[in-house]
């Protein structure tokens, strides 16, 4: 799409060399996970680029840093996340352990993703290409808006250049601006996955951005910086958990434990009515009280995911609430806090 749009807009000349065009389409360093490289960013380098020992050494250094992020940091921190999942399954997870697990998961996905981006940028530099940066210390952001300027920069740039600005951007009044941002985040959710939980994930962040843009901006600026960072990290960690390509279904029980402890329920009664967690089993009739845990193997895998009503696709049977409709789960943790 980038090639077609850039050539149509005359932002870059059409590529007449099939080898160079094929090199762009199949550019293996960034093909799998980013950064997303627009055609106009590398159009000139496809035809003529400079290779030197200094550039190769700088690229190799960047690649090594990315590999270290992935192997030494992401994988090691991920072991803590796995340990907290095991504690959740065994029923021994503590509140402190739960928060440590969530923090570990957030840093694992960051170091994993940014490490891969560093490896792609470094490999491209070794070959004479200069790819755009993809991360800029996102967990130091003081607002959700700033977070998205620092996380997966090439993705937000792509949507801004190819969707938001062509729709009119912010040039045609408040309601058109809100509409354009809504469309962008709807498409961002769809880009992450063709299911309703990803769509709702994108619209969830649309709401956060609109709140900051029109209601919370002045309030947030008056808060101490540590509170602004904490608020952003809570939303950011949920962002990581909500679209982690398979981890969100196992992140949910830990959040559940942090919000509603079983011992607190036994002492003080239930905080919400029975039936919030319905049974998605074959009988289709049993409802589990809030806070009750049930381990259920995912069909065909034998892997147990410790949240009530989980099935192979991560969908809970909400027949007691919404009729017999299978919906993908969406965490509402940031809304509850």
Helix content bin:
55-70%
Strand order of the largest sheet: 1-2
The number of helical runs is: 14
Give the averaged pLDDT, no decimals.
Answer: 75
Strand content: under 5%
Q: Count every beta strand, where a strand is a DSSP E run of 2 or more residues.
A: 6
Low-pLDDT residue intervals, each spanning 5 or more residues: 244-249, 259-300, 303-337
The helix/strand order is HHHHHHHHHHHHEEEEEHEH
Apparent shape: globular
Global structural class: mainly alpha
Give the radius of gyration: 23 Å
Amino-to-carboxy terminus distance: 40 Å
Q: Biggest β-sheet: count, sense, barrel? A: 2 strands, antiparallel
Describe this structure in words.
Helix 2 crosses helix 3 (39-47) and helix 9 (196-222) packs antiparallel against helix 10. The protein has helices at 2-8, 18-25, 39-47, 53-90, 95-126, 144-150, 153-164, 174-192, 196-222, 225-242, 248-259, 262-268, 319-322, 333-336, and strands at 277-278, 287-288, 296-297, 304-305, 316-317, 326-327. With 337 residues, it is mainly alpha-helical. The protein is 61% helix and 4% strand. The two termini are 40 Å apart. The model is unreliable at 244-249, 259-300 and 303-337 (pLDDT under 50).
Describe this structure in a few short sentences.
By secondary structure, the chain is mainly alpha-helical. It is built from 14 helices and 6 strands. The longest helix has 38 residues.
Features:
mainly alpha, 4% strand, 337 residues, two-stranded antiparallel ribbon, 6 strands
